[in-house]
Write a structure and sequence with these properties.
The complex is a heterodimer of chains A (about 325) and B (about 375).
Chain A: E1 14-19, H1 25-37, E2 42-47, H2 53-57, E3 68-72, E4 78-83, H3 86-98, H4 101-109, H5 112-119, H6 121-137, E5 149-153, H7 157-164, H8 166-171, H9 178-190, E6 195-201, H10 205-220, E7 225-233, H11 240-247, H12 253-263, H13 271-300, E8 306-310, H14 318-330
Parallel strand pairs in A: 1-5, 1-6, 2-4, 2-5, 6-7, 7-8
Antiparallel strand pairs in A: 3-4
Chain B: H1 9-14, E1 20-24, H2 31-44, E2 48-53, H3 58-63, E3 74-76, E4 84-89, H4 92-103, H5 106-114, H6 116-123, H7 128-143, E5 148-152, H8 161-174, H9 176-186, H10 198-211, H11 213-245, E6 249-255, H12 259-274, E7 279-287, H13 297-310, H14 314-343, E8 349-353, H15 362-374
Parallel strand pairs in B: 1-5, 1-6, 2-4, 2-5, 6-7, 7-8
Antiparallel strand pairs in B: 3-4
The chains are: A alpha/beta (about 325), B alpha/beta (about 375).
Chain lengths: ~325, ~375
């Protein structure tokens, strides 16, 4: 283990990453794990929804219920991954705390997993978060933490507070007993300053609104909000003034036509038509940029740290992940 | 690439035989907006439509001129023409409560409604929402007040859960585990595990240890109470399932031209075929097109570079870069769609181009409807 670098989240060990569907939550979680691991640290990346998203993103065969090394971080450091299956987590839990592996298997055979996922998702969540927080707390024989950080690719924004608020969710079901105790242990970690819940969003109206709602809900449950990752941000290539003119409908396509002619992409007779078509693109782009500005402002109102991640021109691949991780490091997110 | 058949939205909406349209697909691809736009278009083409959404987006309600959506269909004012448009949002707990109230005597209903397991089950997001969406769909259909019902499916983890939910709940309530829990209760209820064999004794011990005795007792009460009303439950689920397979139903798979969403769409198409559910086609939302498709990304970028190196026409160079990016994006989007099209060449497809602004009102929804029908 190396000393924590000076970042915005130096004291955080559990990074929970949530976001609306389609915002790139898994990508951001994976990149964050790489960024946190860089410089010789050891990070565990956890997924809980059985989608095998981590395997897909790192181009690996499906991950088993086992912590295994999946990537090497920039300038040394390891990313481990774990796909938590609630059924396996339960078997492990029973064996660990009660030495009851056989009974655990019997429970599985009797449909206890259907039971957990159908009737009481709170139980399922407590098993999953329980396994995650166990990895956060785990220490090696010399007393040091096994992982410098754990990154959890969590359920989407609409479900995140219920998912993390395990004590609340199982309180009505188990007022006393081991599940209750277990949920309090989990809650102790999740509500501590060692945890941060990060939101991934796009600069679009709906994901931004959902993010703001999610943050409010999280805060009212006493859970620690982390940062906001603005994903797939497009660089504006055009100067302010040109965008401004475009929004006002006064973009000069004649100058554009002359430029196109000079560049040799159109001759004198075609240039005006091409310029008009391209001007349409400019106007659209300008409108979008203006909307994005408004969305940025609403997000600023949440009072959390914000990080901007570029849209990857070639889609998300391994090289893209490293690029995002680097961008997170430069911005101090890791 | 083979060009797929064009999905003819108006033919589906105008066919009086179409009674149910189910919009399904991954989260974040615009299912709800698609459902609402289809609803408006159908109403303006003379149909009496109800849109059932599970998405609590206030914006959608507002775009239809309603301050809020709830569990009762509300009339959306002022679609043009003689059709009518209603909209509602699923309240899964309310829907579940209503089923219980309809199927159990008042005393038993009270027992169920106040049980902590019922409260967890009826307000949780996993499975119940899907199940209740199907239940509500069945109710709307049986009421026969609307000649077209458009439903968007919950943003499930796998996007397929709504097909499995009724069966899963049924399997759970019919399961051996539950039978064992309920058996002693039926036999007098003195001991939860009295009649059980040794294997189950072991399990019961584990259960009690793991969950605590109170939990077992609550669960048992809950299951035996629910058991009494469940016959009706299961029958309804099966009826709805059959309804979905019937010729009056059209499934629209909704996607965006991105890898995950297209992969999910493929999976969905295959799954619908397996379940013999009638697939109408694929809607690809938010497709980027350029008004200047003749100028390729490569040529545009090269020209920009040329201008930049000469230090001339700075603005034109920037515009050419913008265009190159747009063309690159369009190319990537069409690659993502090609996989789907080559795997499912017979599925009709319609593309809806990306709009620079979100939908805020009926005009916006109408515009989406136009794009769906004439893109």
């Amino acid at each position: 283990m190396v000393d924590s670098p000076d970042t915005d989240w130096t004291d955080v060990r559990l990074h929970v990453v949530t976001g609306k569907g389609g915002t790139g939550k898994t990508t951001v979680a994976a990149a964050l794990a790489l960024a946190l691991a860089s410089g010789g640290r050891k990070v565990l990346l956890v997924e809980v929804e059985g989608r095998q998203g981590i395997a897909q993103i790192f181009d690996l065969p499906p991950l088993p219920y086992e912590e295994r090394r999946i990537a090497v971080a920039p300038s040394g450091g390891d990313v481990y991954a774990l796909a938590i299956d609630p059924e396996d987590a339960m078997l492990e839990y029973m064996e660990m705390f009660y030495g009851m592996r056989r009974a655990g298997r019997a429970l599985t055979k009797m449909g206890i997993v259907d039971f957990a996922t159908t009737v009481a998702p709170g139980f399922r969540d407590v098993l999953v978060t329980g396994k995650t927080t166990e990895a956060v707390r785990r220490r090696s024989r010399n007393g040091r933490r096994v992982y410098d950080a754990v990154v959890l690719d969590a359920p989407p924004t609409g479900r995140i507070t219920r998912f993390l608020n395990v004590t609340q969710e199982v309180a009505g079901l188990a007022r006393v007993g081991p599940i209750k105790n277990h949920s309090e242990l989990v809650s102790g970690v999740v509500k501590s300053p060692e945890t941060a819940v990060h939101f991934v969003t796009l600069l679009e109206e709906m994901p931004v609104q959902e993010t703001l709602d999610g943050i409010a809900e999280l805060r009212s449950a006493g859970l620690p909000a982390g940062g906001i990752f603005l994903n797939m941000v497009r660089q504006s290539l055009l100067p302010e003034a040109a965008l401004d003119m475009a929004v006002k409908g006064r973009f000069d396509s004649e100058e554009l036509a002359r430029g196109l002619e000079a560049a040799g992409v159109a001759d004198g007779s075609q240039a005006p038509a091409l310029a008009k078509a391209l001007a349409e693109e400019v106007v659209e782009h300008a409108h979008r940029t203006e909307l994005e500005r408004a969305e940025r402002e609403s997000l600023a109102g949440a009072g959390l740290r914000r990080y901007e991640l570029p849209l990857l021109a070639d889609g998300v691949d391994l090289a893209g992940l490293y690029e995002l991780a680097e961008s997170m490091r430069t911005q101090g997110a890791a | 690439m083979k060009t797929p058949a064009r999905l003819d939205i108006d033919a589906i909406l105008d066919d009086r035989g179409t009674r149910i349209i189910v919009c399904c697909g991954a989260g974040g691809v615009g299912k709800t907006t698609t459902a609402a736009a289809l609803g408006l278009r159908a109403a303006e083409r003379g149909r009496c439509v109800v849109v059932l959404t599970v998405d609590p987006a206030r914006r959608l309600a507002q775009s239809m001129g309603l301050t809020e959506l709830d569990n009762t269909p509300r009339l959306v004012s002022s679609p043009e023409g003689e059709g009518r448009l209603y909209a509602m949002m699923l309240d899964m707990k309310r829907t579940f409560d209503e089923i219980i109230e309809a199927h159990a005597d008042p005393e038993r209903a009270r027992q169920i409604l106040s049980n902590p397991f019922y409260q967890s089950l009826s307000s949780s997001f996993s499975g119940t929402q899907e199940y209740m969406a199907m239940e509500k769909l069945g109710q709307l259909r049986r009421s026969d007040e609307w000649d077209l019902i458009i439903v968007d499916t919950p943003p499930s983890r796998s996007a397929l859960d709504f097909l499995d939910a009724p069966e899963r709940l049924g399997r759970f309530l019919d399961g051996r585990f539950i039978k064992l829990l309920t058996a002693p209760a039926k036999a007098g209820g003195r001991s939860a595990f009295r009649l059980l064999n040794a294997g189950f004794g072991l399990m019961a011990g584990a259960m009690t240890k793991l969950l605590g005795a109170q939990v077992i007792k609550d669960l048992q009460t809950f299951v035996s109470a629910l058991d009494a009303v469940f016959g009706g439950f299961r029958q309804r689920a099966e009826m709805t399932y059959k309804l979905l397979q019937a010729p009056g139903t059209a499934f629209l798979v909704v996607a965006a031209p991105e890898r995950d969403a297209m992969r999910e769409a493929s999976y969905f198409v295959e799954r619908l075929a397996e379940e013999r559910m009638p697939l109408a086609g694929l809607v690809v939302n938010r497709v980027h097109v350029s008004p200047a498709p003749g100028l390729s990304a490569a040529r545009s970028a090269a020209a920009a570079e040329d201008l930049e190196s000469r230090g001339e026409h700075e603005l034109t160079a920037a515009v050419l870069r913008l265009h190159a990016g747009r063309m690159q994006l369009a190319a990537r989007e069409s690659r993502e769609q090609e996989h789907f099209i080559s795997a499912h060449p017979t599925v009709p497809v319609v593309q809806v181009r990306a709009m620079s602004e979100d939908v805020h009102d009926l005009t916006g929804l109408r515009q989406i409807g136009n794009l769906l029908a004439t893109a």
